[in-house]
Amino acid sequence: MKKLIVLVVALAAVFAMGSVVSAATVDGLFMYKISETYEVDGEKTDAEGFMTFDIGAEAELYPNIVVDGRFLFSDSDDDDFGFGLYQAGARYRLMAENGVEVHLGGGVAGLTGTKVDGRDLTGFSVYGKAHANIELSPEFGLYAEGSYAPGLLGSFNFDDLEGSGQIMRVRGGVTYDFTDMIGLQVGLSYTDIKVDDFEAEDNGNNGGAEEVKINSLLGGAGVVIRF
Description:
Strands 1, 2, 3, 4, 5, 6, 7, 8, 9, 10, 11 and 12 form a twelve-stranded antiparallel β-sheet that branches. β4 (65-75) and β5 (81-97) form a beta hairpin. By secondary structure, the chain is mostly beta strands. It contains one helix and twelve strands.
């Protein structure tokens, strides 16, 4: 949660720099769990619960350069599972023609407030991503984004045991703008997290865990606010 606060404060500071920000967007979705599971050493468990949301913000600082951040949080009905995924980075607009925009970028993705089988899972990694916006009409638009953090220049820990991990996320949806400032969106989100190769403790025991996975498919709706 501390990382989320830092992310929000940083983005707010960026938005306050009106002299350099040419456009900014804030969005949020309340998500429904279509399918969500966690797995420790092949033992898969369905995550029950409904409290899930996805919030994001972005700002174009200079022509074609956009900084952005997102936070995805999913809770469960018990204390055994719940995860928070944050992403913060920047992207460059490669093209903008006939209502189609394509961006490439990267940043840092990490886990916060995450429990699997009642044990803490933390970590972060550098990621790369591709992003696209398509304007279907003045009111309707499509968006799609895929990011992958292969575990390079990062660190992951499960129950105080260090391992290697990877984070993949794909999301997309449809937007409808009521005005130039306010719109609605409907979207899907798929997240796949895997941590393994745990280092053994001094006694040679790896704590009984060899692989931890989180797989989440969500769908939901929310608002978009543009500045």
